[in-house]
Amino acid sequence: MNLEGEEDVAEQSGRLVCSCGESFEIQEGVPNLVFPRSQAFTLEDADSYDELIEWMGRLLNEDAGAARSRAVDLLEVGPGARLLEVACGPGPNFPHLLKAIGAEGELHAFDISPDMLRVAREKLPSGATNVELSLANGLNLPYADESFDALLHIGTLNRFDDTRRALAEMARVVKMGGKVVAGDEGIAPWHAVTEYGLVLDKFGALFRGQPPLVAVPPTAREVRLQWLFGDAYYLIDFRVGRSVRTLNLDVALPGRNETVRDVLEKKARTP
Ligand SMILES: C[S@@+](CC[C@H](N)C(=O)[O-])C[C@H]1O[C@@H](n2cnc3c(N)ncnc32)[C@H](O)[C@@H]1O
C-alpha cells in the first residue's frame, strides 16, 4: 500500500491507497483497516476497562498480570520477534509483549474500537518506536500470509461471529511453526457445581464461554488447552502447520485380507 500526500503529514492523517483500488483513512497515525467497513460489534468501555479487569482479579483472588505473562510465555518468542496482538483493547498485554521481544522486536496490534486504541496509545511507554497500531476486524486480518513469528489474542474468541474463520485468519498470518495463543472467559468445567462456579455463573454469559476446540484449524499442531486466572479463562495454544493430517488407507485390516480403502470402496458401492 502507498501513502497518499506529503509523507510526514500523511503518516498522521492521510490515506493508505492499495493497488486494488481501496483506500484507508489514517487518523492520528492509526490507519482504519476495518473490513467490512460497517458492522455492529459489542464494545467495552475503554476508559474503565483496566478497572474492570482489576476488579475481576480481586473477585477471583488472582493476579491478571501474572496470567498475561503466562500467556505471553506460551508464544515462545525472544528478542527481535515480530508479533501481532488481535483485539488488543487498551493494551494491557503490551508491557509483557514488549518485554519478550525487546527493543529490536516489532509489535503490531489492532482493535476494532478507536477508543480502545486511543487508550492503548496513551499508555505506550514514551520512545516505544517498535509498536504499530491499527483499526481492524479480527475476521479480516489486513496482513499478508506468514507475516508474524507469533500471535496473541485474548478476549473476543467467545464473541466472533465466525470463530473458525477468526482462528484460521490468525493461523494464516503466522509463520509455519510459530505459535497462536488465544483465549477468553470461561469457567473450567470442573467448577460447574461448586459454589465458586455457581456464583460465577450468576454473572450471566460472561463466564459461560467454552473453549472452541472444534474451530481450531485442522492444520494446527501441538494443540493445548489450559485454564488460568482462577480457572475462569481458557487459553488454547497451537503451533501453525500447513498440511491436514492424512490416513494410510492402504493398511490391511487386522486379520483380514483387505485394506481400509477396499472396505470403504465396497461400502460406497453398496446401495
Ligand atoms: C475483552 S477486550 C480484550 C482486550 C485485551 N486483549 C485483553 O487482553 O484484555 C475485547 C476487545 O476486543 C475488541 N473487539 C471486539 N470485536 C472485535 C473484532 N471483530 N475485531 C477486532 N477487535 C474486536 C473490543 O473492542 C475490545 O477491545
Would you give an account of this structure?
The chain is 27% helix and 23% strand. With 271 residues, it is α/β, with parallel strands linked by helices. The strands form two sheets. It has a seven-stranded mixed β-sheet with strand order 7-6-5-8-9-11-10. The protein has a four-stranded antiparallel β-sheet with strand order 1-2-3-4. β3 (23-27) and β4 (30-31) form a beta hairpin. The N and C termini lie far apart (56 Å). Bound molecules: S-adenosylmethionine (SAM).
Helix content: 25-40%
Gap between N and C termini, in Å? 56 Å
CATH class membership of the largest domain: Alpha Beta
List segments where confidence is low: pLDDT < 50 over at least 5 consecutive residues: none
Secondary structure class reads alpha/beta
How much is the radius of gyration in Å? 22 Å
CATH architecture of the largest domain: 3-Layer(aba) Sandwich
Task: Give the overall shape, derived from the CA principal axes.
Answer: globular
Overall tally of domains = 2
- Strands of the widest sheet, in order across it, are 7-6-5-8-9-11-10
Taking the sheet with the most strands, its summary is:
7 strands, mixed
SSE run: EHEEEHHEHEHEEHEHEEH
